[in-house]
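Shipment paperwork, digital attachment
Item: protein structure file
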Amino acid sequence: MKKQIRLNAFDMNCVGHIQHGMWAHPRDRSTHYTELDYWTDMAKTLERGLFDGLFIADIIGVYDVFAGSADAAIRGGVQIPVNDPVLLVPAMAQATKHLGFGVTANLTYESPYSFARRFSTLDHLTRGRIGWNIVTGYLDSGARGMGRDQLIAHDDRYDIADEFMEVCYKLWEGSWEDGAVLADKARRIYADPAKVHAIHHHGQHYKLDAIHMSEPSPQRTPVLYQAGASDRGRHFAATHAECVFLNNASKDTTRDLMQDIRRQAAIAGRDPAAIQGFVHFAVVVAPTDAEARDKADGYREYASSEGALAHMSATMGIDLAAYGPDEPIGYVKTEGANSQVEAITTRSAQVWTVNRLKQRMILGSRNPPIVGSPQTVADEMMAWIDETGIDGFNLSRTVAPECVEDFVDLVIPELQSRGVYKTGYAEGTLREKLFGPGTGSAPGAKLPPTHPAAVHRR
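Attachment content:
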């Protein structure tokens, strides 16, 4: 049987996400992002295309590194303004039956106690279709907004994250036993106190003595997503993540990163097959290659290289406006997203300059889209699957909603005809849909016994 491609839509509760400038296109509706129908309509289209999930990015802070201010980001709508992603999920879940939701939440600025309740609530309301994209933040502006002088050092953020995860695992997996909830109306006993336990944690960063406020949800722990590709980020992913997201810098780099994460997971005692890899892509598709190129050329008229540079500068913590157009960009250790700095320096065989980046930013993003007919797009997607060992793709919007509608109407049938994409949803939770219904080595609704969360179960 051929390997089945996994698909997430990749979006954000804002006007401009990855392909900067596309919001100004006459057919784009991204400026309606504050309206609930915009999101429920998208969710219905994704479910019609049998997408595994909608991955919703988020950021705490603004992009204010480029030229020393936030002006370029504000002017171009570069992930500012941006609204809370969590509040979208219940409405989209109500409008769908199978679509999963991966919500980004920055644990650096959260309390594990209240955070665990929020995601248990989402897991209940979605009937087990929620995932959490674990991030630690990379913006000084966000740290200042949260009352801190500056961003916590990169590796220290991951040390804090490890302990945060431990506390959440204790709450989700260890506070309420299976069978604690009786809902016995005759005896007037809702839950058995003997099977509900306080969690006691006294660590370096967190202190907790409390019972988890939510009863066990369908998955208990949400599906865990993570996007760190730095050395420390890969170690964190190998320890905790079920799904990892990688940028499509090159097939060789992607293959090496995926292999390293799975290798580290095996050393930690986890099943490497329990980690699925997703690569970020944008797609411009039309019935023929020529029509797709024409469509991409029309999109390109609205692309903002300034917006893309503002986004990239803040992500890396390096002001690209300070470089001459053809001046080589060298590695600089920052407290931002180290993997993004490494991608154009130490992990790249090419010398990158601002002009070279602009040439690549054809749709206002650091990476060019796949452009072509359904056959061309499918060929490229299958090549990435075969040559890198990844499992699927995060498809970010270009001109919305037509980018999603075109992909569903044109590419999905082509993938199905090749036997590499499902023709119907499996039943069960998001974890069961991704990994299997709990038979053999498949984990079922809950995390498998080899995951570090499992040690906290009673």
